[in-house]
Specification:
GO terms for molecular function: copper ion binding; electron transfer activity. The protein has 541 residues and is mostly beta strands. The chain is built from 3 helices and 35 strands. The chain has 4 domains: 85 residues, Sandwich (Immunoglobulin-like), CATH 2.60.40.420; 116 residues, Sandwich (Immunoglobulin-like); 110 residues, Cupredoxins -  blue copper proteins (Immunoglobulin-like), CATH 2.60.40; 112 residues, Sandwich (Immunoglobulin-like), CATH 2.60.40.
Length: 541
């Protein structure tokens, strides 16, 4: 891999052919950007990273974009064409063609006088797909009507949920009424290539970009209502009917008379372990850690005995958080959420709500921790007592002496650099370049600055009033997808969709639009907007 293309190491193209069971090596030896290998549909049987920072199981290889110096291998046990791209550049692609080593013989057809049996139609498995564009909706994949958002299945059946393509982020939740117990994710989003491993709804754990897929199993008859976690207008139902097979009546067995047993004395419930909970609010914007047993939002400290375990969690909220220590505890274990690597930090990167974990502290001392996404406002401490039960004494400040001494070497800064929070802003475009004509020609360029963000979408839209004025069906004019590059820029050329072309082709007035940028990276998601006035050609109609 180079910064511009994939190259066959033995040639000059971006494709290789191997037999079933073959292994292909991938590497990014030198460059100035960040890349990884993301397989689009067919996935290799296994991948192993052999160099670079190994952040978790693959594919993708590595699991997230990484600078030069990484390498690894992937093995392909099934025949097919495997298309892959750089996670930073969707247009930078390559191909692995895996073929059977031994061709399968064509069977000889023997004529028979027996009447041909009528083929039994195989029922199509139920499938629900998420869609977006001028609006957001769920649709039965076997139907052509956007209004058909329901499927009916027998008890014990599976229903596949997927978001094959689009510009937004969606997931499947069952917020009210019955919910399936099992909802494993089987394919990952190309924008967030991490599998939700808890096998329970919501699926995925939070709204993600296109490419993800999974299924839910419905064992109990009833009506299951589902909704997208970020678009409440996206609703649908799964109607589960009885299987139709009568349950055999068991033979009655005489119930033995139970022997009277003395009622045991209730065991006292052990006290709840100390814990720290991450919180946030959108209005006003605020993020903080809090002692789980305290009602004071300013109380972000717990004191424990030597060898104690402290729970950490982020049960609900709209941001992403994690826990990073200045001095690491003895061990940390993530219990729920996306476990990328063994903690600490806990989790490895800031994650959306619903993660939990625990850390054990075998050495007395004061352990300070921060959230790497909000390091200036989210801090806290765990104070571990000495063996005799006393709290550790703070290191006294040395008293300066009057006797002149040699100037000591300045203390070295051993504190790791803090990870930047996810951030983005759309640059103010030059007025001269912002015209309806330029937009219709596909030459409207929008530039944004970004930090710690991955892939995203920039959408240009208008208000309903403007849409009515220019005769636009819907409010969306166009959109484009790209990534925050290694120089902290997000640059796209916006092209009009068919509806926008039709509405603006003979419109001569100026158009007030809104540019919306939505980004998602390893430490969270963010979105920003900017109003842009497109100059017209002259008199408005």
């Amino acid at each position: 891999m180079t910064d511009t293309a994939f190259r066959d190491a033995a040639g000059d193209d971006s494709a290789v052919e191997i037999p079933v069971g073959g292994t292909v090596g991938f590497s990014y030896p030198v460059g100035e950007s960040r890349h990884n290998v993301v397989f689009e549909t067919l996935q290799p049987s296994s991948c192993k990273q052999t160099a670079g920072e190994n952040w978790g199981a693959t594919p993708p290889l590595p699991w997230y974009q990484q600078g030069p110096g990484w390498a690894g291998t992937c093995t392909f046990d099934k025949a097919g064409t495997y298309v892959f791209h750089s996670g930073l550049n969707f247009l930078m692609k390559g191909t692995i063609v895996v073929s059977d080593a031994t061709p399968t013989a064509t069977p000889t057809v023997t004529a028979t006088a027996t009447a041909t049996a009528t083929a039994t139609a195989t029922p199509t498995p139920a499938r629900i797909e998420a869609h977006d564009g001028t609006h957001n909706w769920w649709q039965d994949a076997s139907q052509s009507s956007e209004a058909d958002n329901s499927v009916t299945v027998k008890a014990g059946a599976r229903v596949t949920f997927a978001f094959p393509s689009g510009a937004s982020g969606h997931n499947v939740t069952f917020p009210s009424g019955p919910a399936p117990a099992l909802c494993p994710q089987t394919k990952v989003s190309s924008q967030f290539p991490i599998l939700d491993t808890n096998d329970a709804p919501p699926m995925p754990a939070f709204a993600q970009g296109p490419g993800w897929e999974g299924y839910c199993t419905f064992d109990t008859p009833g009506t299951y209502t589902f909704v997208c976690g970020t678009h409440p207008e996206m609703t649908g139902t799964v109607v589960v009917e009885s299987g139709g097979e009568p349950t055999p009546t068991p033979t009655a067995t005489a119930t033995p008379t139970p022997t009277a047993t003395a009622t045991p004395t209730p065991t006292a419930t052990p006290p709840t372990r100390p814990g720290i909970v991450a919180h946030d609010t959108a209005t006003p914007a605020k993020n903080w850690f809090q002692d789980a047993s305290s009602s004071d939002a300013a109380d972000n400290t717990v004191t424990v005995d030597k060898g104690a375990t402290v729970d950490f969690s982020y049960p609900s909220g709209t941001s992403a958080h994690n826990v990073k220590f200045d001095t690491n505890p003895t061990s940390c274990v993530q219990k729920t959420g996306i476990a990328i690597t063994t903690g600490p930090p806990l989790p490895a990167y800031g994650q959306p709500a619903s993660w939990t974990g625990e850390c054990t502290f075998d050495t007395p001392g004061t352990y300070t921790f921060v959230c790497t996404v909000h390091p200036t406002e989210m801090t806290g401490t765990v104070v571990v007592k000495n063996v005799d039960g006393t709290e550790p004494t703070p290191t006294p400040t040395a008293t300066p002496t009057a006797t002149p001494t040699a100037t000591p070497e300045p203390p070295r800064d051993t504190t790791p650099a803090k990870i930047a929070s996810i951030w983005a802003a759309i640059d103010k475009p030059t007025v001269k370049a912002m015209t309806v004509s330029s937009f219709l020609k596909g030459k409207l360029t929008i530039v944004a600055r970004c930090v710690s963000a991955g892939s995203g979408t920039l959408t240009l839209s208008v208000s309903k009033a403007v849409a009515k004025q220019i005769g636009l069906n819907g409010t969306k004019l166009g959109s484009a997808t790209t990534t925050c590059d290694g120089h902290g820029r997000f640059t796209v050329k916006l092209k009009p969709n068919a509806a926008a072309k039709k509405a603006l082709d003979d419109y001569r007035g100026s158009v007030k639009t809104t540019a919306t940028l939505a980004l998602a990276g390893p430490i969270g998601q963010t979105s920003v907007t900017r109003t842009i006035n497109l100059k017209g050609k002259g008199r408005a109609r």
